[in-house]
Structure formats: structure tokens, C-alpha cells
Specification:
Metallo-beta-lactamase, Chain A, six-stranded mixed β-sheet, alpha/beta, binds zinc ion, 412 residues, Rossmann fold, 29% helix
């Protein structure tokens, strides 16, 4: 028998690539997340049982549908047992069809259900739903050998599900030995021009009111909270919402009744050329057919521009330009500001088209103040940071913080 132990393969010194291995005293192991590094490197962490069959790798548990948490699953051996929430799984499937984002590959998955404990070997794992920019995100409570580990995954307290964060910190599981906690926002340029999702919605309203033409919102289709904010702001300003088919599919995959429904009178579905050619090439008319009654076609866009808001991305600019629907429009970039900086040509292009630009965003990750609230909810636990760049900044938050290095085993 050895002691219960843990190692973080990736994430001690970087944002992304999360992968945590936990080993029981009897030798059984589980993996928490198996993410792609943000640098795009696709090599697998050195874990027995990912590329081969290993009887003591008992399962891989995925916290949410962001590639830096699941993106290497498409490489694992078919015999690997993977556990993931149904919502996350369905969102990944929708993205896999319409985007170059990683798929789940050929692995068989078992569903994780909120607050329902799964047992594999000596491990008990309970997924606890949490607020984050990925819909259907979980924290994990892991019990093994009489020890308790809490894994934050990615968290925040200022989205549309902030009550989940409030509920957790007001009644947290007790006697946690080790808290493995994300620290994305520590030491970063705060991307918080707006403090929360509600203030983003209000800022959208004020922009849509000022805009004579179409409102364009450039956000991630997977940021379901942001699509809801766009819809709410559209309704408050008497505008209809135009979704591209990929976004419509993500909303359907969310399984939520709070999202804009393509069946509603004030919601239309537009099929951008890239998505259309994908459907034609793959003959996936089963995807497009349900949206026929609510489709809006390019020749209609100009007529409805002043009463519409569209979920938009830069690749759609040229076809919208051809559709003559961009006169007096405003483009709101509503995603991490780093994406804008990577594409300076886009800002020049919309300026030349006389499209007004605003940046209105709130981060998918906890602020430092929110992280302080989070770790205060686990007053007796050791705290191991993950998913961060500023390790020293995290240390300053509590004298319970222990810095670890990638790949090193440590006892629980
Ligand atoms: Zn995430």
C-alpha cells in the first residue's frame, strides 16, 4: 500500500491543458480533465491507460466542454472509461460538426448527473454544477481512502448562474483535505469592463438603442449566457434575434428552457456559407431541416436590419456586406479582448465599412475577489493552484496555498 497521492500533469504553470491524476492507496487511479494546452500542442500527458489498456485507470472525468479541459479525448484508447455531463457532451458534438474544435473521438462515455455520486473502484466522485462561461460546468468532490479532494474546474460568480457559486460557498462540503483551485484571472489584465452578465445585457441595450442599423454581437456560440444576454437586450429594444445554425445547435444541445428558442417569433436562423457548405458536403439535412420554418435568407437581411440583432463572427463579414445589411450597424465584440488583438485586420475592415465598434464583455473566470470568497469556503484545506500564470499572486491570497510543479506526485 502506498499513500493516497495526486499529480497535476499540466496546469501548474499555465492556463489550459488541465489534467490531474489521483491515485488511491490501493493503486487505482482516476484522471480529472484531459485538456488541450492553449498553445495548441497535442501531445498526451504520460498517463498509463490513456493510449493503452490499463486495469487500474478507472476513469477520466471531464468538468466542462472547453477544449483546454477535454480536448485530448479524441486520442485516448477506446477502452478508456470517460465520464462527462450530457450537456457538455452534446455541446461538444454540435461544435465538432460546425467547427475545427476537438471531438470526443471514439470513446464511449458515461453520463455525469449534477449532484449524483459515481463510484469507480475506491473513488466516489460527485459533480457539483457551477457558474462558468461553459454551459453545464461542474466542480468535482472526490472521496477516496477517507480523504476528500475538491476540484474547482473553471468557476465564476458573476454569470447568469451566479446562484450556483453562492449556493456552494454558503454550504460547502466540509472537511476537504485538498482544494485544487483555478486562478486564471490572478495577475491578468482584468477583462472586466463590465462586472457581470446583467451589466453586459444593459450595455447591449444602450448600444442597440443608439444603433440605426443591425446590431452585430461577436461572441462565442458556446457562451450560452452571452447569447441569452443578446436575446434579452434584443427584446428590450424591440429587435429580433438572428442566430447562425451552429449557435442554434449549441442552444438546442444546452437542453435548457431558458435559452432563445428558434421556434419563437422573434428568433430567426441564418445559415452562413461555411455552415451551409458543411451541411451539403456531409449531407446532414437532418440538422438544417428543423430550422426551415424559422430561416432568414440573405436577401431578407437588409429589410430587417434595423429591427435585428445578429450573433456574428468575422468570417461572416463578406457575405453580410454582399447582403447590403451593414449600413449604420454596430459590431459589439463580446469575448476575451486577446482575440481582437490577434486580428487587427478585422477592426480596420469594419472601420472601412463604417461599422461602429464597441467592446462589451465580462470574463468567464472568477475575479480575485470571487476566488477569495471561494477559498474561504474551505477553511481547513490545503490549496493547490491550477490553470494560472501568476503563481506568486495566488500565494498572496492565503497562507494555505502550496505550489506544485507539473508531473510531481504529492501526498494527500
Ligand atoms: Zn473553461
Amino acid at each position: 500500500m502506498t499513500e493516497t497521492s495526486c499529480r497535476i500533469h499540466r496546469g501548474c504553470h499555465e492556463i489550459g491543458g488541465n489534467c490531474v491524476e489521483i491515485k488511491s492507496a490501493s493503486g487505482g487511479r482516476i484522471l480529472i480533465d484531459l485538456g488541450l494546452r492553449l498553445a495548441g500542442e497535442t501531445s498526451m500527458p504520460d498517463v498509463d491507460g490513456l493510449l493503452n489498456t490499463s486495469t487500474n485507470l478507472l476513469g477520466v472525468f471531464i468538468s466542462h466542454a472547453h477544449p483546454d479541459h477535454y480536448g485530448l479525448l479524441d486520442q485516448v484508447a477506446q477502452t478508456t472509461k470517460v465520464f462527462i455531463g450530457e450537456t457538455a457532451k452534446n455541446i461538444i458534438a454540435a461544435s465538432d460538426f460546425f467547427t475545427p474544435l476537438p471531438s470526443l473521438g471514439n470513446v464511449e462515455t458515461s453520463p455525469l448527473v449534477a449532484n449524483e455520486t459515481r463510484q469507480v473502484g475506491p473513488f466516489k466522485l460527485t459533480p457539483i454544477p457551477i457558474d462558468h462561461s461553459a454551459f453545464g460546468s461542474f466542480c468535482f468532490l472526490i472521496e477516496v481512502d477517507g480523504k476528500q479532494i475538491f476540484y474547482s474546474g473553471d468557476i465564476r460568480a458573476h454569470g447568469r448562474k451566479s446562484h450556483l457559486f453562492d449556493n456552494l460557498v454558503s454550504a460547502p462540503p466540509s472537511n476537504i483535505d485538498v482544494l485544487i483551485c483555478e486562478g486564471t484571472q490572478i495577475g491578468r489584465d482584468p477583462d472586466f469592463a463590465f462586472p457581470d452578465e446583467k451589466s453586459v445585457e444593459d450595455a447591449f441595450v444602450s448600444e442597440f438603442q443608439k444603433t440605426k442599423g443591425m446590431g452585430l454581437v461577436w461572441c462565442s456560440s458556446q457562451n450560452v449566457d452571452r447569447v441569452i444576454s443578446t436575446y434579452e437586450a434584443a427584446k428590450r429594444t424591440g429587435r429580433a434575434l438572428i442566430l447562425d445554425m451552429y449557435t442554434a445547435e449549441v442552444l438546442r444541445a444546452s437542453g435548457s428552457s431558458d435559452v432563445p428558442s428558434p421556434d419563437a417569433k422573434d428568433v430567426h436562423v441564418f445559415l452562413p456559407r461555411s455552415q451551409k457548405s458543411r451541411i451539403l458536403r456531409e449531407k446532414r439535412f437532418d440538422i438544417s431541416k428543423p430550422y426551415y420554418p424559422n430561416r432568414i435568407y440573405p436577401e431578407k437581411l437588409a429589410d430587417t436590419a434595423s429591427t435585428s440583432v445578429m450573433i456574428f463572427r468575422p468570417s461572416m463579414l463578406r457575405e453580410l456586406e454582399k447582403a447590403n445589411c451593414l449600413l449604420d450597424s454596430t459590431c459589439i465584440s463580446s469575448l476575451w479582448a486577446g482575440y481582437l488583438k490577434r486580428d487587427p485586420e478585422f477592426l480596420r475592415k469594419i472601420k472601412s465599412l463604417r461599422i461602429a465598434h464597441k467592446h462589451i464583455h465580462t470574463s468567464g473566470h472568477a475575479t480575485v475577489r470571487e476566488l477569495e470568497r471561494f477559498i474561504a469556503a474551505f477553511p481547513d484545506s490545503r490549496i493547490i493552484p491550477i490553470h494560472l500564470q501568476d503563481r506568486n499572486g495566488f500565494v498572496k491570497m492565503s497562507d494555505r496555498v502550496e505550489l506544485k510543479n507539473d508531473k510531481e506526485w504529492w501526498g494527500i
